[in-house]
Amino acid sequence: MPILNKNLTSQLSSLSWNRAQPLIVVDADEVLLQFVCGLERFLASRNLWFDVVSYKLFGNIKEVGTNTPVSEDSVKLLLHDFFIEASHNLDPVPGASAALESFAARAQIVVLSNVPETQKTQRRDNLHQHGMPYPVVANEGLKDEAMAMMAAQTDAPVFLLDDITHHLKATKERLPHCHCIHIIGDPRLSALVPEQTTGTYRAADWDAASGYIDQVLIDYGL
Question: Which end of the chain is more exposed for a tag (fewer CB within 10 A), N or C?
Answer without folding.
Answer: N
